[in-house]
């Protein structure tokens, strides 16, 4: 099996750390609202990949978090006059309903950031002790980006370019930073915000440290695969690598997989642009299997444009496959047990070839688009056969 690794920008043979096992972490949603169908893309893609790895015989330990402490959650809580946990718990439940509708299996573990604060404090302290982080006068803890020599290796960015060309990307007006490239590990509470005790101040963690810690807790210091949408490559995943590798002293993840964007009119679907449909919106019009099929009909690294026409086409295609499957079920139910003709034996052999081609496509960096076209060839072959054998019945 080959995987395109963002770290090396090449397709590489997959070699797990432990024979027959895979440890995989997928960054999950920030829960302040219903998820949109862009958020559903990584869920569907990496669920499919997990299922395929299991089909190949791997035991997959699959961890995906919920970010349940964040400015947007706090804002939504203040708007409703409730505790931020009311908002996050509500939308975790809603997200789980959507996942079920999409046939996305629950992860082995779904950790919540607010339940892992102790681990975050420990990792931040380790980073301070090792000289990779410092505490500002107000208790904010910053990561000293330049202290990690390999910073930029995932996003293939150069620190000096970031400092000059990309300066506006990084400067946030926090003048207590020793360097504009530094990022927050822990920040002091503001009035009305949830907070935890820490050695530095009452406050809450930065977003990036959450995933470093949850991945370490459930999967160990080095994992096989870390995944998410391509918007997470920089700075989120770059910062996760800097934190984890500086704290643990070993590589963080061997393979980094990133899905392309789900777009509308060639623009990324996002809450901030307002150009989104929630999974719930789509479920009013379609069975969510159609949405899943639509997502899988493109390669996961390609951008994918969402449109009503494409959803209709996905619906028709999926129906074609399902109709063929139920026709086959019918034929099988009519058969006498043990009565397999020579002709049928030949067909079975032929279909093994389709299975092999399906697996070859999936082995090639989870190419679901090619795998689906193999299914269509099989459907065509089956339909032709059924028509010949049972002319009139189909
Ligand atoms: P967020 O809640 O924004 O952190 O997003 C949760 C996951 O959804 C991350 O892996 C994002 O990269 C992914 N994501 C968000 N918007 C899109 C989009 N339009 N297309 C594909 N993936 C997306
Ligand atoms: Zn993450």
Write a compact overview of the structure shown:
The protein has 394 residues and is an alpha/beta fold. 47% of the residues lie in helices and 14% in strands. 40% of the residues are buried.
> What is the strand tally?
13
- CA-to-CA gap between the ends? 38 Å
> In the CATH hierarchy, what is the superfamily of the largest domain?
HUPs
Q: Supply the CATH class of the largest domain.
A: Alpha Beta
**Cofactors, ions and other ligands in the entry:** adenosine monophosphate, zinc ion
- Unreliable sequence segments: 166-171
**Which sheet architecture does the biggest sheet show?**
4 strands, parallel
* Structural shape: elongated
Order of H and E elements: EEEHEHHHEEHHEEHEHEEEHHEHHH
Radius of gyration: 24 Å
| Lateral strand order in the biggest sheet | 4-3-9-10
What is the overall number of helices?
13
User: What number of domains?
Assistant: 2
- Tell me the strand percentage band: 5-15%
Taking all residues together, what is the mean pLDDT? 94
Query: SS-based structural class?
Result: alpha/beta
- Which CATH-level-2 architecture of the largest domain? 3-Layer(aba) Sandwich
Helix content: 40-55%
CATH domain fold name of the largest domain:
Rossmann fold
Molecular structure report:
- It is a single chain.
- The protein is built from 13 helices and 13 strands.
- The protein has helices at residues 37-55, 71-80, 84-101, 117-129, 159-164, 167-170, 207-219, 233-248, 279-285, 288-296, 308-334, 342-363, 368-389, and strands at residues 2-5, 10-13, 21-26, 59-64, 133-135, 141-143, 183-188, 203-205, 223-229, 253-259, 262-264, 267-268, 304-305.
- It has a 4-stranded parallel β-sheet, sandwiched between helices. It has a 4-stranded antiparallel β-sheet with strand order 5-6-7-8.
- Strand 1 (2-5) and strand 2 form a beta hairpin.
- The longest helix is centred in the C-terminal third of the chain and has 27 residues, at 308-334.
- It starts with a strand and ends in a 5-residue tail after the last helix.
- The chain binds adenosine monophosphate (AMP) and zinc ion (ZN).
- Adenosine monophosphate binds next to helix 1 and strand 9.
- Zinc ion is lined by residues 27, 211, 236.
């Amino acid at each position: 099996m080959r995987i395109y690794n963002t770290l090396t920008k090449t397709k590489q043979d997959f070699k797990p750390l432990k024979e027959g096992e895979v440890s995989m972490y997928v960054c999950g949603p920030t829960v302040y609202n219903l998820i949109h169908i862009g958020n559903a893309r990584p869920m569907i893609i990496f669920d499919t990949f997990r299922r395929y790895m299991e089909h190949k015989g791997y035991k997959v330990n699959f961890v995906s978090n919920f970010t349940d402490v964040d400015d947007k959650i706090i804002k939504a809580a203040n708007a409703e006059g409730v505790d931020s946990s009311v908002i996050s718990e509500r939308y975790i439940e809603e997200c789980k309903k959507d996942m079920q509708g999409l046939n996305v299996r629950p992860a082995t573990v779904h950790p919540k950031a607010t339940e892992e604060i102790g681990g975050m404090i420990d990792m931040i302290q380790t980073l301070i002790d090792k000289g990779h982080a410092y505490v500002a006068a107000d208790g904010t803890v910053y990561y000293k980006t330049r202290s990690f020599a390999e910073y930029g290796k995932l996003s293939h960015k150069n620190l000096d370019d970031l400092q000059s060309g990309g300066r506006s990307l990084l400067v946030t007006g926090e003048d207590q930073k020793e360097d504009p490239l530094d990022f927050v590990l822990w920040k002091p509470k503001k009035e009305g915000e949830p907070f935890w005790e820490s050695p530095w101040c009452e406050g809450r963690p930065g977003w990036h440290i959450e995933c470093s810690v949850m991945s370490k807790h459930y999967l160990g210091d080095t994992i096989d695969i870390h995944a998410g949408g391509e918007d997470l490559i920089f700075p989120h995943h770059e910062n996760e690598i800097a934190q984890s590798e500086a704290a643990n002293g070993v590589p963080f993840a061997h393979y980094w997989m990133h899905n392309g964007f789900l777009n509308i009119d060639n623009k990324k679907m996002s809450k901030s642009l307002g150009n989104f449909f929630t999974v719930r919106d789509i479920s009013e019009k379609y069975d969510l299997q159609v949405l899943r099929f639509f997502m899988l009909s493109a390669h996961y690294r390609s951008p994918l444009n969402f449109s009503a026409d494409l959803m209709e086409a996905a619906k028709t295609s999926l129906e074609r496959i399902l109709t063929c499957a139920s026709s086959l079920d019918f034929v099988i139910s009519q058969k006498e047990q043990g009565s397999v003709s020579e002709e049928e034996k030949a067909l079975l052999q032929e279909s093994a070839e389709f299975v092999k081609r399906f697996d070859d496509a999936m082995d090639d960096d989870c190419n679901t688009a090619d795998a689906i076209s193999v299914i269509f060839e099989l459907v065509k072959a089956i339909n032709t056969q059924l028509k010949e054998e049972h002319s009139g019945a189909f």
